Amino acid sequence: MASMTSTLSISPKSPKLRKPRSNASSVRSLSPQPIISRDENDALRRYVDEIVLTFVSARERGYNFSSVADCIRQTISTQIYEEHQLFNWLRNNQNTAQYTTLLGFFYFQGIGTQRTDKRKGFHLFLTAAKMEYYVAQDLVADCYCFGHGTPKMPELSFEWYQKANHNGSTDGEFGLGYCYDMGIGVKKNLVKAIQHYKNASKKENRSAMFLLGQCYDLGLGVERDREQAINWYKKAIEYGNTDAREPLEELLKEGNSESNESE
């Protein structure tokens, strides 16, 4: 459901509006792909492979769609090729699940193309997910969960988070926890939610860190523990989650107020 720069989501104080991710997009004109040499094709492949690594790392660390797109654009800005060149190369090289998923994300966020096409992006995610690619499975689950490029289908969202988690996705484990937390496609179970949040947090998923801190802050599924809440909020902030700042400040003020009263 995935630090570099702080632009990510995956919430307010009681009641909290939990939206781990949001979407943003920018556009660029699409140019036809010219015939390129083998050497240039190999060079483009290396650049795309670098972007794939950036993409997977950001997703697994709990970055939302728009934040992942920011990371990709930042990586592209350091290269000699432009967005539309990479987009065109991906369109002509759909021989791996990784490339299919990345092309879907380019459509989804309007990277290298004239406009966003979330429906097209979703179908590419689904194609790669059926090839057992855990990143695509996690993206499909997100799409079904939040209605991105497809109608909301809570039960399918839960099923795809399960598959992603089974295949090793840290963000898929976070998403599974989120489903148990919010009762999405499954009966609400805060004990299971917290266990999944803990597992994903240990693997540096900042969205899981934030919601784990929230559980300790509000006493959701666990006894309220201010120190644990502060600890996980701080970790979430360290990894770039800005949503944790406000509740952390509130807890620190609460602690200072109690200290002053005891003096």
From TrEMBL:
InterPro entries: Chitin_Synth_Reg, Sel1-like, TPR-like_helical_dom_sf
Pfam family for this entry, one: Sel1
Entry keyword Repeat: yes
Name by which UniProt lists this protein: 9170_t:CDS:1
Lineage: Eukaryota, Fungi, Fungi incertae sedis, Mucoromycota, Glomeromycotina
Biased composition (Polar residues): 1-12, 22-32
PANTHER family, per database record: CHITIN SYNTHASE REGULATOR SKT5-RELATED, PROTEIN SKT5-RELATED
Keyword Transcription: no
SUPFAM superfamilies, sorted: HCP-like
